[in-house]
Amino acid sequence: MLLSELNIGQKALIVEVNITEASLSSRLAELGVRRGETITCLHESPFGGVRSYKLSQGVFALESTIADNISIEKRDYP
Amino acid sequence: MNAVAIVGKPNSGKSLLFNRLTGLNQKVTNFPGITVQIKRGQHKNFTVYDFPGIYTFHPITKDESVAIEQFEDALAENNIRVVLCVLDVGRLSSSLRIGLEMQKRASVQGIPIVFALNMMDEVGPKQIVDWQGLQKQLQAPVVPISAKTGSGLNQLVQTLTNPGVVTPVGKEPDFYVLANQLANRFGPQSEEAYLKRNKLDRFLLSPVTGLFSFVAIMALIFQSVFSFSIPLMDFIDWLVGELAHMATHSMADGPIKDFLVDALFGGFGSFLVFVPQIFFLTFLIGILEDSGYLARAALICHRPLKFFGLSGKSFVPILTGHACAIPAIFASRIIESPKRRFLTILIVPLMSCSARLPVYALLIATVIPRSTFMGGFVGLQGIALFLMYLFGIGIALLVSLVLSRSKRIHAEDIPFILEMPQYRIPHWRPLLTRSLNSAWQFVSRAGVTILIVTIVVWLVGYFPNGSGHLDTSYLGYLGHFIEPVLRPLDLDWKYGVAILTSFLAREVFVSTLGTMFGIEDAEANFDSLIEKVQTSGMSFASGMALMVFYAVALQCVSTFVVIKNELGNYKVPLALLLFYSILAYVLALVTYLIFS
Fold it and tell me: CA B195, B188, B113: angle at the middle one, nearest 5?
């Protein structure tokens, strides 16, 4: 499934990051958007379009166009 | 060179530490990437440079690439004796990722690095931070500090004076992986801060309470600017009047007395009355920045602003633009998309900056009654001011919408990424000094222009016939010459002159009018300018039209120059000047027709 399909409050494992633009993908990798890392969806903007996620490097707001290109596997963590 | 360079991730408390070390009051904000210039200050042992925060060594925004360039240039030029890297203990992993990269770059240049482990005051009593262990692994001094409380600073200064030797960094590891390992092993293990933030975010970002609080916070800010500043404004008004009376009542009549009464007290003094509003506006915007709410506001605004061709991050320049367009244009550098950044720069001059405040305040006080509701907190004049701000934003969004759909703007578009900082209670002391500074800077920067323009206006308005004959003065001839342009708005030539002079800087409008009314009035009369404009018979429609004109026209030489510098050409600012002037006149005309 895609990161944009993850519900608020759910955790997932990042399986693949399909972003070809080099500077953007290396930026995301720095924040912790990389294969094998855990990601949690925290909040959505009242108007939509952007969600905040907990990543290994902190809490970040990412636009949905980014989340549409990240494949995840949902995990039921304790 | 005996210089220390403070570096680190944005929002890790560098600026506050810089203020602690140097006693200067730099802007300390809780919005990632707000420092866009290098600040310099002096500690008794060394010179301190505060560098813009570095997020990454793979930049995607202009402020990021500028920050890296400045850091690398400084290292290469051999100006720096020691690098002081600030780590946020609450975000240790991401701070270390940047810190390790910096250590590598400093070591290549043979410069020692010292790590300041900041925000130790936020570490809970049950949490363990093994800074000695970290120090051993990093092979560089680590000093636990709190820039907020000042703890650990003496130790830090000692370490900076004698930072030890540079250990060469061997094979370059994956800094991301290494930083995560180090943070997990030596950093605090707690979700406490994160959970607290999550709770607040649930309220401030929810569809109902989030939107409601956003609107309420913004409305409160603009209402407060008016409500809080009224007593202070009345006081300054009274003081200027008293001073004028004291200084001139025993003087003999003649040009010198006329000059003092009309130009100095009437012109310059009438501008001083509006300084409290500038102070309160900067103060309240400062609270938003320091608390961490600004990043949430950017998140909330992203989708709506995107529709207009802007970014959620454009909210920051839009808000700061209400204090002054110049820092707002610099703040646009945080926007990653070049296209959205360009559009933001174009519309920032439409925000009702503090230079417009005196103009609005004068006109609002003239044509709108001082009635209040809800125990005096909500006033009609405050609402009018709020509407003027909304009007500026509305026009800006429309301009951006039209331009963003035009095929003539070619620039790439990069999606929105923003770190959500932790919520913090603002430190009132730096906030207060900063607001006082900005009010003072406003007075001193605008003051010179205003004083010169006031004197020139007085000279050409007083001569050749002296007090009481403004109509037949040199200025009168000029005014009558341009009067036909003002006639459709039912404004007399004096306003035309004031508008012309305020193309240098808007706030000149008030002092120019003050001077002219002073000369016109042959008696040495200390009525406030508001009363003079009221008795001159300005209609409601004309007052509204004039406000609309000032909301749109680009009347600020400094903004013009800064746009030229940011974009590297004269074409865009010239086009803006022309376009906004014509738009301002047309909209003023429409406003007059609607209200008359």
Answer: 125
Q: Which residue has the higher pLDDT, B378 or B279?
A: B279
Contact residues, chain A, for B210 at CB < 8 Å? 46
The CA distance from A1 to the nearest CA of chain B, in Å, is: 21
B295 or B565, which is more confident:
B295
Cβ-Cβ contacts under 8 Å, A52 against chain B: 201, 205, 299, 420
3-state helix, strand, coil in chain B (%, to 5): 65, 5, 30
Contact B586, B395 (CB under 8 A): no
Contact B550, B356 (CB under 8 A): yes
Q: Looking at residues B362-367, what average pLDDT do you find? A: 89
Q: Which residues pair with A73 in a beta bridge?
A: A13
pLDDT at position B190, please? 61
Cβ contact (<8 Å) for A48 and B303? yes
Residue B211 and residue B539: Cα distance in Å, rounded? Answer: 38
For residue range B20-62, list pLDDT tens digits in order: 898 865 555 555 554 456 778 888 888 888 888 887 888 877 7
Let me know: does B575 contact B560? Beta carbons within 8 Å. no
Parallel, antiparallel or unpaired: strands A70-74 and B113-118:
unpaired
On chain A, the residues whose CB falls within 8 A of the CB of B89 are: none
Q: Give the tens place of pLDDT for each residue, B260-304.
A: 877 777 667 766 776 787 788 778 888 888 898 989 999 999 999
Nearest 5°: the CA angle B256, B261, B264 is 90
Distance separating alpha carbons of residues A5 and B327, to the nearest angstrom? 39
Task: Write out pLDDT tens, residues B517-553.
Answer: 877 765 555 567 777 887 777 899 999 999 999 999 9
Give the residue from B544, B551, B533 showing the smallest Cα distance to B489.
Answer: B544
Contacts of B12 in chain A (CB under 8 A): none
d(CA B533, CA B176): 65
Among A24, A29, A50, select the one facing B414 at the smallest CB separation.
A24
What SS3 class is residue B287?
helix
Who has greater pLDDT, B165 or B401? B401
* Higher-pLDDT residue of B588, B123: B588
What residues are paired with A59 via a beta bridge?
A54
Average pLDDT over chain B reads 84
What is the token pair recorded at B373? 């509701």
Q: Which of A45, A48, A65 sits opposite B415 (nearest CB)?
A: A65
In the sheet with B3-8, reading across from the earlier edge strand, the strands are B39-42, B47-50, B3-8, B82-88, B113-118, B142-144
Q: Inter-axis angle of helices B275-291 and B356-367, to 10 degrees?
A: 120
Instruction: Note the residue count of chain B.
Output: 596
Cis upstream peptide for B430 (omega within 30°): no
Kindly give, in sequence order, each residue whose CB lies less than 8 Å from that of residue B180, ignoring residues fewer than 6 positions away: A56, B93
Q: What is the C-alpha to C-alpha distance for residues B205 and B213, in angstroms, rounded to an integer?
A: 9
The model carries a pTM of 0.80
Which residues, in sequence order, are CB contacts of B154 under 8 Å at separation 6+? none
Instruction: Give me the sign of the Cα torsion angle B550, B553, B557, B561.
Output: positive
Q: Which of A30, A42, A65 faces B201 most closely, judged by CB atoms? A: A42
Continuous H helices in B249-379: 255-259, 269-272, 275-291, 293-307, 315-320, 325-331, 338-347, 356-367
Whole-number CA gyration radius for chain A: 11
